[in-house]
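Internal tracking record. Fields below are filled automatically when a chain is submitted to the structure queue. Please do not edit lines marked as system-generated. If the sequence contains nonstandard residues, flag them in the REMARKS field before resubmitting.
Queue: standard
Priority: normal
Entity type: single polypeptide chain
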Amino acid sequence: MKKFMALLTAMAVVLTCAGCGAGSADTDKKSEGVMTYEEYMAADIDSQVVIETYVQAKQSWWEDKATVYTQDKDGAYFLYDMACSEADYEKLTPGTKIKVTGYKSEWSGEIEIADGTFEIEEGNYIAEPEDVTSILASDELIDHQNKFVSFKGMTVEAAGQDADGNDVAYLYSWDGSGQDGDDLYFNVSLDGNTYTFTVESYLCDNTTDVYNAVKALKIGDKIDMEGFLYWYEGVNPHITSVTAAK
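SYSTEM-GENERATED OUTPUT FOLLOWS
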């Protein structure tokens, strides 16, 4: 994940880290000069884009720049390094409608809006998690990038080994070199395929339910999950909720 070496631990969105609630858009009619999601996805990389979207979760704020997960009824937008004062960051509560002008960017497969500016508008929407379990192994999955999604009935696999050579269910950092408070990486499988999922520590830190739920996982556990369908060299969801499979 992209990290600043000096990045302070950001405030996680409590609602998201416990599992997002439901809501409904008051309207999705775009203002004049604002792109539809389809137009945004068709835009060239590095081109300027203008979109209207709704805050779903805040990942971090640092030196008047914010990283935010957002979504409307048609798709989702990951806003990276958006210009934002600390006071305005406090206003970006879940559901808040914003108009964003920035540049469409790509980083290791992740499509995002970088170096943007925003203004708050009237409106409110919190997305229901979309169950993407059935398309997890398909090419269709990338069409849902950055959405708030769910995964059902997946099996915990070994993520690596500890210092004694024993299989473990999670790692601190991608290679196990981290410590408590760093990102958690864990593997889950479905239909013979194994995937690496992440608890992004700036989104859900080591005080959150999801962080501690992953630390309590055992290899072979069957679990349901919710999170944001982030991309890094392939699907790499940022998980915000883990529960025993129903």
